[in-house]
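Deviations from the work plan: none for this task. Representative record:
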Amino acid sequence: MVTKMATPSINRREFIGATAAAGAGLILSSCSPDSGSKSAANKASSLNKINIALIGCGAQGQVLLESLQVIEGIRLVAVADIWDYNRNSNVRRLKDNGFDVKGYRDYEELLANEKDLQAVIVAVPDFWHAPVTNACLKAGLHVYCEKMMSNTIEGARSMVATMRETGKLLQIGHQRRSNPRYVFALNRLVRDGQICGRLTAAQAQWNRAVTNDLGWPKHSDLKPEDLAKYGFKDMHQFRNWRWFKGLGGGPLSDLGAHQIDIFNWWFGGPPKSVMATGGLDYYKNHDWYDNAMVIYEYPLAEDVARAFYQVQTTTSAGGGYFEQFMGDEGTIKMSENPSITKIYREDRAKSWDELVAKNYLRASATAPVSDADKVDVRETAPLLQYDIPVSFTKKIHQPHLENFFNAIRGTAKLNCPADEAFRSEYVIHKANEAVAAQKMIAITPQETEA
Amino acid sequence: MSEPVIHTFNHTAMATQFQVRIAVEEKSYAGQAAQAAFALTDNLESRLSRFRANSEISQIAQLAVGEKLRLTEPVLACLRHAQKMEFATRGAFSVTAAALKTQPTKPLWSLVENEFSIRCDSGRLEFDLGAIGKGFALDRMAEVLREWSCPAFLLIAGGSSILAGDAPTATAGWSCGLGDDNSARRHWLKNISLSGSGLAVKGNHIFDPRTGLPSSCRHRAWALTEFAAESDALSTACMILKEPEIAEILQRNADWLVFLQEKENWRHLGKRQMPPAA
């Protein structure tokens, strides 16, 4: 049985990548679908198959590979990785799954040999992002580069400059920017529906339990001269580069980057200040802070909203990873994990019935209706709770990659071009700086522009 | 000769406690290898779980009749095992068993091998990999440990499926019992998988995919096969198959061995040689 529901207005960007859940099926199938990847590919015959390569087959590269294997209209022709173990195992698995891919040692070898590429996906360690991305842009390729753009502000700025010089597309991997649940929640609930009322605060977190440093199989070591050539002291540093200054930016950069970017995106711009505390409390063989707490101040039309971010890498307690925006009428708690997403209404807020009727919100429990002069007594009634009626079943990086490929075809605009990403990444670098300085640092709008 | 050093590591995934035991001298190295194997398990869970909205299994459940979905390599490999086991057990094992709770007839599906895709042929493909996914994870974890030069391992998924690698030095294998703790029925296992199904822990939770009804012919069943994905599925099927049906299946699969228990009545079926008693 299909329940008839009202049709919310959902624009093409929100539609892309969203698939219908029970109850929401009519909504999405009744919309005019976006041209999307399949039809876009047919329109631009020369780009029916976009030839791409993946540079960097480590943990993040493999996450992206999962999506790249199922996206239509692209052809993965090569992968590159300096580590034989990663490169060879990925080439083998890809060939087992029908992909005729070549393996190259590094981006220079790849660029020298592959002359029919249109785009590359860059998932190498952060300190290589700028050199690899700049070289690929200058070689005439569109680039999807994982966040952080660079381990330095200067590196990130150089990427924006190269993007502008070459006129090529540079998408940064803040994948929530293309997540239909996030796009819908921001556009329809926060902006159109004003469900939070006046925004006053936000908090976000990503806490992780203690884990051992990454190891490597015996007999798979890179040669010392190769480690040195590519900027690593030893195999331990190569495998755990995220923890070392000069290579990565630590947990605030690895995890916080995604969520602090949501602060900037949803508040509509960068903060005016940051203060932070943190330390190298636990892993004494690392460089970067393992625990950090950050407070930003975001200037809003009404006044200011403060946003607290924490990343603890010694405990997983605290309820998972999420971004929560709080106002005087409601709170919306977002996460890539839909089971964590919650929406709360303050008693003083105007009725949300209209939003429910428009299917912008879904009430998970119905309030009893009774006449004012009567009451029925029974079990304690559940509190009203609300969910977002957009279900999303693709892999979480898939819509962001699809947005990149559609932008190459000319059927979409990038959801996170490098200049936009720079505004977020600048203030993330400033958070690490604030931990070191142990003071509040002012941020001007001008300095967040690349 | 001294006893081999066995290091043990635990990890929760797929709503199950996974355990890795590795016989190797260096504990820190064994820990890193186990961590790599557990990371793979987490990745598989994200693809295979019907409780994850973004998993491929959840995406498969959204397919309309005639629609196809390109699969990633591990999901395709797991479904190949599932297809093989459904055929081999004459439908007594099926990943669509639970779908009969919500649909009048069993949904049908095909793997389109040259497109690395699955196609929905009828119904809603509400897959439940509960009787094969954990075994499949053990098979893939074994590959990781061998890559890490740790071939002497024992992998355990929730106590119901194990996969033994090489024997620890100076032993005949890993001592594995059938049944309750410290069972007297023990065998030395190496490079083989053993899975058990039964009613003792969850009651009669096994549905016959052929009827959609709870069903069981016996108290417990075990299956010994090369791959853990297969032993996992076969032991479940053996809970509902009648003994002549099992015998007929084992005629065609000479490298499988099945143990059955009905109260105090124990027997084994199959041509495969019984592993040595421990």
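The longest strand of chain A covers residues 291-299.
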